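RECORD TYPE: inverse folding
INPUT: structure tokens
STRUCTURE:
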């Protein structure tokens, strides 16, 4: 290209750029909102601040060096702390000391009902509610609290009706929707922050019913128990936890969805406690390996590892090895979906359940019971091992033997457990890589019971002949806790 042509082309580009710039300026001038930035949320915030309160608590600790009410995330999780905890008035060794905490809350009934986090008020001797106008009220009663969802419902006695806010539908919120948090970060009451919903249905390993809303609205220490609003001024979440290496916001906060909170709070108000639905099963995830062992095209549902003998599932005929695909019209895409669906179901309700058993789909009805408060799973490991030669051929790196009285005593195996005991696991074998241990008992192979070593060998041969790359084992530990393991056959 000659010099003259290059100059002409440069001039054309300059004129084009100038035209675009002028057009953009005209657009911004024609639309004032674009020139000023996003629309203000002042009108929404102004109507809500009176209903958001600061919660201050005091607790007296008697022993020297006794730990205060630290609000840490679950052991091994990436979460630093839940937001409050300010310590003062530490006495000398042997003397009582007072621990003060600051959090947030919000009024849901003009008569004086206030929502906050359980960890904000846990163990408190005195709870004071501070309002935006400077007035204070002492909490006269904790109507109820629920550690599993970290919610608490408080009662105060106001002389005049309080300004209250209402709950919205958290299920209607989408990733990218604007939200607003109001609370008491670092003791700075009435602080407003704005962000978007970053994710929904987050599982942060805080409890069995995790279903959190994640937001990048700034949430810090002291925001615990405060509301997360939509742009209509409705509460769609209760701020509960953050990820933070420093204790300050890095844009990753979590809130209990309003649809979960309202169910819990209604029960706390009516009964003073939660009354959750109970199915009576222990379930585990259907991994790709387990799906292959079951003959499923893709992982789906919740795999029943064990069934409580006197529970609703046992009465309805649900068995270990069943895969629950649908509960009360709700698809169970993953294991975590089932506990959340069950606990929100009314006690004594007859619920349709669709499950997969032996490659066939079954439809049954279960009458939901009430979850026992002490329902919990225990994990025990047997460390001592003693190799015993396998019968015959390679068994995925396992040595197995009949479950004799001597072996029951050696591995402390309950008399109620039947099957074939594993006496040794070769290092770096397929079974070892799946955390199979000596002392585990093989109860089923490919969903068929086994009682002698030859039963296990026959089932393994059948799996290999079928061409499947994995075999599904149902294992029991010494206490009777069951789990499924899909072990590669080669």
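DESIGNED SEQUENCE:
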């Amino acid at each position: 290209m000659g010099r003259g042509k290059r100059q002409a082309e440069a001039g054309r580009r300059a004129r084009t750029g100038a035209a675009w710039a002028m057009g953009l300026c005209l657009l911004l001038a024609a639309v004032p909102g674009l020139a000023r930035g996003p629309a203000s949320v002042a009108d929404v915030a102004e109507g809500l601040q009176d209903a958001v309160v600061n919660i201050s608590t005091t607790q007296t600790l008697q022993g020297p060096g006794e730990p205060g009410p630290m609000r840490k995330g679950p052991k091994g999780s990436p979460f630093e702390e839940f937001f409050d905890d300010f310590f003062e008035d530490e006495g000398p060794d042997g003397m009582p000391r007072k621990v003060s905490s600051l959090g947030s809350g919000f009024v849901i009934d003009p008569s004086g009902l206030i929502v906050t986090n359980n960890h904000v008020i846990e163990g408190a001797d005195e709870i004071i509610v501070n309002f935006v106008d400077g007035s204070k009220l002492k909490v006269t009663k904790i109507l109820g609290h629920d550690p599993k969802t970290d919610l608490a419902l408080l009662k105060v006695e106001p002389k005049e009706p309080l300004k209250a806010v209402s709950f919205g539908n958290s299920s209607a919120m989408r990733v990218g929707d604007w939200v607003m948090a109001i609370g008491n970060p670092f003791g700075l009451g009435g602080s407003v922050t704005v962000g978007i919903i970053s994710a929904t249905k987050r599982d942060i390993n805080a409890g069995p019913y995790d279903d959190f809303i994640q937001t990048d609205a700034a949430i810090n220490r002291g925001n615990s128990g405060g509301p997360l609003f939509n742009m209509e001024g409705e509460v769609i979440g209760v701020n509960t936890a953050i990820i933070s290496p420093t204790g300050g916001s890095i844009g990753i906060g979590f809130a209990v969805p309003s649809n979960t909170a309202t169910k819990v709070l209604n029960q706390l108000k009516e009964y003073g406690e939660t009354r959750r639905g109970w199915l009576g099963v222990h379930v585990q995830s259907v991994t790709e390996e387990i799906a292959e062992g079951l003959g499923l095209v893709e992982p789906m549902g919740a795999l029943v590892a064990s069934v409580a003998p006197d529970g609703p599932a046992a009465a309805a005929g649900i068995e270990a090895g069943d895969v629950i695909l649908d509960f009360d019209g709700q698809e169970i895409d993953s294991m975590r979906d089932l506990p959340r669906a069950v606990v929100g179901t009314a006690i004594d309700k007859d619920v349709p359940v669709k499950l997969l058993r032996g490659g066939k789909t079954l439809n049954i009805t279960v009458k939901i019971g009430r979850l026992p408060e002490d329902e919990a799973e225990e994990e025990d490991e047997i460390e001592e091992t003693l190799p015993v030669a396998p019968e015959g051929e390679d068994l995925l790196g396992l040595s197995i033997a009949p479950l004799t009285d001597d072996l029951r005593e050696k591995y402390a195996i309950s008399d109620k457990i039947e099957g074939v005991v594993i006496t040794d696991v070769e290092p770096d074998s397929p079974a070892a890589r799946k955390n199979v241990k000596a002392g585990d008992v093989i109860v089923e192979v490919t969903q068929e019971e086994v009682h002698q070593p030859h039963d296990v060998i026959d089932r393994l041969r059948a799996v290999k002949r079928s061409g499947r790359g994995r075999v599904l084992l149902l294992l029991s530990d010494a206490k009777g806790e069951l789990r499924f393991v899909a072990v590669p056959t080669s």
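NOTES: The radius of gyration is 29 Å.
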